[in-house]
Specification:
mainly beta; Lipocalin; 8-stranded antiparallel barrel; 1 helix
Length: 147
């Protein structure tokens, strides 16, 4: 009987933990309709071009998710910025009236990223940024389209 009670208690703890985790706030939009970050929040397709030190061009397309930073009312969190993989930590960007600025930040994989993206039209941005990886700094330009 004692083991049945323990199993029941263990299952109750798991269910309660799942319920608490599922109640986390959704960072998809601010309650303030005048928040300049709102138009940047969402899923964006980045199509980038860069040039390696050896002169070879890099062209790729990937998804970046942008969410509100719950701890700072002027910042957003960019997931997969520079395409290190979506499991990498988020990059912090500061939002102004028409752009996002990413100051130099080092990711867990050792990359350092920095740059900015300027809004060009509704659902469109132009980005310029750099990624330093393994001692080599590569400069990129990208167009971002909201999905």
């Amino acid at each position: 009987m004692k083991s049945v009670t323990r199993i029941f208690f263990f299952l109750a703890v798991i269910v309660a933990t799942a319920a608490i985790v599922s109640c986390e706030p959704d960072n998809t939009a601010s309650n303030n309709p005048n928040d300049p970050r709102n138009e940047y929040v969402g899923v964006w397709r980045f199509t980038e071009t860069g040039m390696l030190k050896n002169g070879n061009n890099i062209t790729q397309s990937y998804i970046v998710s942008i969410a509100l930073d719950p701890n700072n009312s002027s910042q957003v969190l960019l997931n997969n910025f520079g395409n290190p993989g979506s499991s990498e930590k988020d990059v912090v960007g500061i939002v102004t009236s028409n752009q996002i600025v990413v100051s130099g930040q080092t990711l867990d994989n050792g990359w350092t990223v920095e740059g900015s993206g300027e809004k060009t039209a509704t659902g469109k941005m132009n980005w310029t940024y750099s990624i330093t990886a393994g001692g080599d700094k590569t400069y990129f330009s990208a167009t971002a389209t909201k999905q």
